[in-house]
Amino acid sequence: MKLSDSAYVKFKHHLFTGDLRPGQFISQRELVKLTGIPLGPVRETLQRLEVEGLVHIVPQRGIQIVEASLRFIRDTYQLRMLIEKEAAAKFAENASDAQIEALEAKHKDIIARFEQEGPSDALLQEAQGVDWNLHDTIVEALGNSIVNNLHKLNNDRIKLIRLAHGNLTLITPGTFLQAMKEHMAVIEALKKHDASASVAAIERHLTTALHRALGL
């Protein structure tokens, strides 16, 4: 792995585990110390991160982790909506029953365990994985590498919004059942291979997710 790629991975690890905060300023020297990577590769990484919209390079001040402003949140979820509505329609039309049943089984299992065990940190982390898996599976089924890469970059922005709220997972004890209920509604529409119903269900889910991100 190139040193700049290693710095990129390490930066994201520190960002998404809460070591760095949205809106925070950090110097190149501090990033060298944080990542253990020399200055040259760190500078390459910063250029890449700025293109991806995760940092701003501010002359005379350093590097600012992007703030989760109202505009940032709305733009992020608008892009998510554009991608996932199209993906949900295609997935409903083309996915096999086995694919949809696998998604349903994972959701039913995590819901049952939540009801039996309660909201442990480990369970919430696993639930977050189930959540991402549904969205990733639907988008990946488009078979469009450009859209898939854009979806992954946008997911990083969603994670940053989560951090701005002080959460290491998007799913919290208070939002778990509602989020899973919304997912199950999407899955029910997919099971019928009803493209219109699937689009409507994913739109309702993402609209509610936006409201949660905005604190509404």
Q: Would you identify the CATH architecture of the largest domain?
A: Up-down Bundle
Low-confidence stretches: none
Radius of gyration: 19 Å
Q: On the 0-100 scale, what is the average pLDDT?
A: 93
Strand portion, in percent? under 5%
Report the span from N to C terminus.
Answer: 43 Å
For the biggest β-sheet, the strand order reads 1-3-2
The CATH C-level class name of the largest domain? Mainly Alpha
Number of strands: 3
* Count of the domains: 2
How many H/I helical runs? 9
Taking the sheet with the most strands, its summary is: 3 strands, antiparallel
Order of helices and strands: HEHHEEHHHHHH
CATH superfamily of the largest domain: GntR ligand-binding domain-like
Structural class: mainly alpha
What is the helix content? over 70%
CATH topology of the largest domain: Four Helix Bundle (Hemerythrin (Met), subunit A)
Oligomer: single chain
> Which descriptor suits the 3D outline?
globular
Task: Describe the protein in words.
- This protein is mainly alpha-helical and 216 residues long.
- The protein folds into two domains: 3-65, Arc Repressor Mutant, subunit A; 70-214, GntR ligand-binding domain-like (Four Helix Bundle (Hemerythrin (Met), subunit A), Up-down Bundle), CATH 1.20.120.530.
- It contains nine helices and three strands; from the N terminus they run αβααββαααααα.
- The chain has a three-stranded antiparallel β-sheet with strand order 1-3-2.
- Strand 2 and strand 3 form a beta hairpin.
- The longest helix is centred in the middle third of the chain and has 25 residues, at 70-94.
- The termini are far apart.
- The relative contact order is 0.13.
- The model has no long low-confidence stretch (mean pLDDT 93).
